[in-house]
Specification:
359 residues, alpha/beta, seven-stranded mixed sheet, two-stranded antiparallel ribbon, 13 strands, globular
Length: 359
């Protein structure tokens, strides 16, 4: 056989071995944390999409890492909302060392996503929960948090060209963290990132999953969401058949047969415009669906902050002037109250009547 022809054949054989032994199906009677833990018996990587800001999902994540079986099977948690420029500070904090808050908060205040930074710790206390778990574990079994956002140093950013090597390559950097800090070290990891980064498109894996497969590792993809199956008011009552949260493999399940609409970029979220175009089914978007609760019970918020008149607020305005042709006028602000994760948006204004063109 031609040596060049042998390379794709060998690659195909290696990749086919990833699917040779299918994992055991999820136990429908098990809790969600127990089900996710069990996935690591057959997968080195579990990709868990995130509903950004969801109080309910982040509470579930804290339950998951607190399960003693989690640290027995998992080494790392790779997160989106953390600038890898500050990995050393995050390592020391997660391991139990004292790290000044002023130093630690730079990890999420200075991400390149968001855009330009987040004013409060992401994941509603997940980092503190992992640190607490580690303090009870032997040193060689402690969990590590890996920062998945590119290592931008905002003190050196003055123009859009300074951001260009980072902003458009967030998925590539996140995947490289997983390859070199997890897979190359023969470790296992839970990946947490916005669902849009993990969701498959008509069965085709996204960039991060593609790179895992090219490293001969087949990830398991979980997508979280609500009972919304199209527009804001398109709810499916079948989601209420069992108490939230619950996890179901989408293959051969009624959830997997739901149609995905072009106007709903991520399943379980409200469509951005009235649904019109079908693009496959939910089963083609991931391996399992994590139902977190009904549209009206999912919330965000819970931490009060006001950036007006603060140094960080001024820094955000500086970044926005660099990023956006028309920067936002208002800085983020919160009264600390929880509010709906999916607020009902006002309908778009009706189109203006067409003016006849002059003859």
């Amino acid at each position: 056989m031609n040596s060049k022809a042998a390379v794709p054949v060998a690659l195909a054989l290696c990749l086919s071995s990833l699917w040779a032994q299918p994992p055991r199906p999820l136990d429908p009677a098990a809790s969600v944390p127990a089900s996710i833990v069990s996935l690591f018996d057959s997968h080195r990587i579990v990709m868990l999409g995130e509903l950004h800001g969801s109080v309910q999902q982040h509470a579930l994540l804290k339950q998951l890492v607190a399960d003693p079986r989690f640290a027995e099977r998992v080494n790392d948690i790779v997160v989106e909302g953390c600038n890898s420029f500050y990995q050393e500070a995050m390592d020391r904090y997660i391991a139990g060392s004292e790290v000044p808050r002023e130093r630690l908060r730079l990890a999420w205040e200075n991400v390149v996503g968001a855009p330009g930074g987040a004013p409060v710790p992401p994941y509603h206390g997940l980092f503190a929960a992992i640190r607490s778990v580690n303090l009870k574990l032997p040193r060689d079994r402690r969990l590590r948090v890996l920062c998945g956002d590119p290592p931008i140093d905002w003190t050196r950013v003055e123009t859009r060209e300074d951001i260009a090597p980072f902003l458009g390559f967030r998925d590539e950097h996140y995947a490289s963290v997983v390859r070199y800090q997890v897979l190359a070290l023969r470790r296992k990891a839970l990946l947490i990132m916005g669902s849009g980064h993990f969701q498959r498109r008509e069965g085709k894996p996204g960039l991060i999953e593609q790179q895992m497969i090219m490293a001969f590792v087949k990830p398991y993809v979980i997508l979280p969401g609500s009972d919304i199956v199209g527009g804001y008011d398109d709810l499916d009552e079948r989601f209420q058949q069992q108490p939230a949260p619950w996890l179901a493999e989408m293959k051969d399940h009624w959830v997997g047969a739901l149609p995905r609409w072009q106007e709903s970029p991520v399943v379980g979220y409200p469509a951005m415009t009235p649904t019109k175009t079908k693009l496959g089914t939910w089963a083609q978007t991931g391996d399992a669906y994590l139902y977190l609760g009904s549209r009206d019970k999912l919330t965000q918020g819970g931490e009060a902050f006001d950036l007006e008149g603060t140094p960080y607020g001024a820094e955000l305005r500086r970044r926005w002037k660099i990023i956006f042709p028309k920067p936002p006028q208002e800085l983020p602000k919160s009264d600390g109250q929880e509010r709906p994760l999916f607020p009902k948006m006002a309908p778009p204004a009706p189109a203006l009547p067409r003016v006849p063109s002059p003859n």
